[in-house]
Amino acid sequence: IRMDNKATATEIGKRVQTLREGKGISRREFALSVGIPLTSYRDREMGRLDFTLAQLRSISARLGVDVDTWFRDLPRAMAA
């Protein structure tokens, strides 16, 4: 997924981080479990890079949520 708005990437990264931390999973452990190199995962979680759809699917499966969780209720300007 190409996110044209840095704010969108940042918000999605925050959502991933919040759910990951809520499950008590370290960033390192989680990155390994979803097959993303740690530095790349960290940059995505911090909104510096976009997650791909495949990555979001893997993350969703690991956290037990639907893929649309990451996009739900984004401010309209972010989702455009």
Number of E strands: 0
The CATH class turns out to be: Mainly Alpha
What does the largest sheet look like?
A: none
Please provide the ordered H/E string of secondary-structure elements. HHHHH
> What is the overall silhouette?
globular
Terminal Cα span: 13 Å
Annotated CATH architecture: Orthogonal Bundle
The CATH topology turns out to be 434 Repressor (Amino-terminal Domain)
Give the overall average pLDDT: 90
Low-confidence stretches: none
Alpha carbon gyration radius: 12 Å
The helix-and-strand class reads mainly alpha
How many separate structural domains? Answer: 1
Protein name: HTH cro/C1-type domain-containing protein
InterPro entries: Cro/C1-type_HTH, Lambda_DNA-bd_dom_sf
GO molecular function, one term: DNA binding
What brief labels describe this structure?
80 residues, mainly alpha, 434 Repressor (Amino-terminal Domain), 5 helices
Q: How would you describe this structure to a colleague?
A:
The protein has 80 residues and is an all-alpha fold. It is built from 5 helices and no strands. The longest helix is centred in the N-terminal third of the chain and has 17 residues, at 6-22. The two termini are 13 Å apart.
